[in-house]
Amino acid sequence: xxxxxxxxxxxxxxxxxxxxxxxxxxxxxxxxxxxxxxxxxxxxxxxxxxxxxxxxxxxxxxxxxxxxxxxxxxxxxxxxxxxxxxxxxxxxxxxxxxxxxxxxxxxxxxxxxxxxxxxxxxxxxxxxxxxxxxxxxxxxxxxxxxxxxxxxxxxxxxxxxxxxxxxxxxxxxxxxxxxxxxxxxxxxxxxxxxxxxxxxxxxxxxxxxxxxxxxxxxxxxxxxxxxxxxxxxxxxxxxxxxxxxxxxxxxxxxxxxxxxxxxxxxxxxxxxxxxxxxxxxxxxxxxxxxxxxxxxxxxxxxxxxxxxxxxx
Amino acid sequence: xxxxxxxxxxxxxxxxxxxxxxxxxxxxxxxxxxxxxxxxxxxxxxxxxxxxxxxxxxxxxxxxxxxxxxxxxxxxxxxxxxxxxxxxxxxxxxxxxxxxxxxxxxxxxxxxxxxxxxxxxxxxxxxxxxxxxxxxxxxxxxxxxxxxxxxxxxxxxxxxxxxxxxxxxxxxxxxxxxxxxxxxxxxxxxxxxxxxxxxxxxxxxxxxxxxxxxxxxxxxxxxxxxxxxxxxxxxxxxxxxxxxxxxxxxxxxxxxxxxxxxxxxxxxxxxxxxxxxxxxxxxxxxxxxxxxxxxxxxxxxxxxxxxxxxxxxxxxxxxxxxxxxxxxxxxxxxxxxxxxxxxxxxxxxxxxxxxxxxxxxxxxxxxxxxxxxxxxxxxxxxxxx
Lengths: 312, 385
Description:
The structure holds 2 protein chains of 2 kinds. Helices cover 66% and strands 0% of the residues of chain A.
């Protein structure tokens, strides 16, 4: 039995995985430093518009980097508000999402002469095939043919991410200010710069993921193209209990769940389920997990809490 | 600097005066900052900032119909701002107003389509109740999970938003799908005339000054009544007192014999009920059907409105009107200048963030000053005694 449809679903799922995982990994660094970031969706939106513009102007690689840089700059608004001015993290994140929509329309008008999308067909990176895996029988090999080179890069990013988080001085300190900033401060760790760094990483990775979406998946900037993937990344992060490996697994599951209704709608069992219900899966699973019905998830202890400084 | 000789009563009133002055100062500073940022962008476009701001003000206040337009835009924002604020008073963050009102749109549409045998004076209230009930059900899930399992309401409401979008998309395509000709935009059948909200102009005989293109309905006065009710609830009712106690210090509230969980669930349901009314002006005041391109983002905008209005039922309508002016101002900008209209959305975000930051700064200064005063009082008092 040929499994071409399944292969195609996995191929698309891997692309969604890349967006969810990269954004979630950024969120992980931010939240492990103690800054809750629900502005990931907005950061991603900034990444899509700037990435599309950068690609039209300079090509896909600079486009991806410009998207990441723009996401980083945009996320600094969140860092300034929450770290320096101790604004509630949720309020600031919501504002980020609100502003991003307006900013993207504004920039689109500026760059492309229309507020809601760019011209389609911006150049992409080309595709690669994973040697060996693309020879899988029964049509499953299609999942690993014609893949964006960013997909394996996202997978491989897990290794440095874990290393930085667990084995470097920076990672240890980052986690310490997310768990107990007062104690960290007492030991001579400066809280604010580390939290700025955590948020900046979330901005860079979220912006990069947005640019990837515009350049490598849709081939254009279009208003609303992020369709809540920033929130799905947040869900994967929570479900992954703020750990990179579990985030990777969660992102894979959610990525595939995104692709199934688009590529496997005729398959047995799935054809009985309306597409809309499959789309609910990531959210339902996350609610079940956060409510502690299946294993308990535990956020960083100081996440969402303003650090008042040593003086008080 | 206070002296120990100052009578406590006068000190209290002076602190209150300082507090008010501080808030006004913060608001003024934030507006000035946002206007400055806006001016930089406007000048970059070779336009005159003063002219642009005057245009915005002119387009939203010059004629009665302009004011009506602003109030139409403000109506849903008042409801969503109230929904966010009332939960926030209990220390709860209802990010889920977005999903709750979307579900409310669905249940309201079901009521409008299936209860069409009711006369108008019963059908419109039935639609309102259906909207509130649907949204309350949606709000009850995070509320119960919060109290029973400790699941953080920010996370659960964000997830409920995602589910709501898919659920309503499904409903529009299946049980509520239009029976008529397949149209390009997917939607329900048209609601019966009796299900629509009477217009403000028609009710008060203002048809000559407010054209029918402005969809200001009786939902606007209803929104103001809701503000008054929320104020009464928060500051004059027992549950409202409990809610505020839980919000400002859950430990003290519990020690005072308040059941935190019960108060939180109840206030979240009230928040949900208010959220249910958010989408109705578009649904039964304007469109008359539920389409797949329904108005989104009103719930998130409510968070902005709530914080701009200091989470107070008196501040929220003012904040909503302000956002309404910025929305109406886009028309003016489009007609009279070369600027992209989205500049006002950006300005709105800058304004909200700077207001929140300014309040935070002022509060910090006031708190420090109060601490210093207490310290001075404590060190000097024994010496004088």
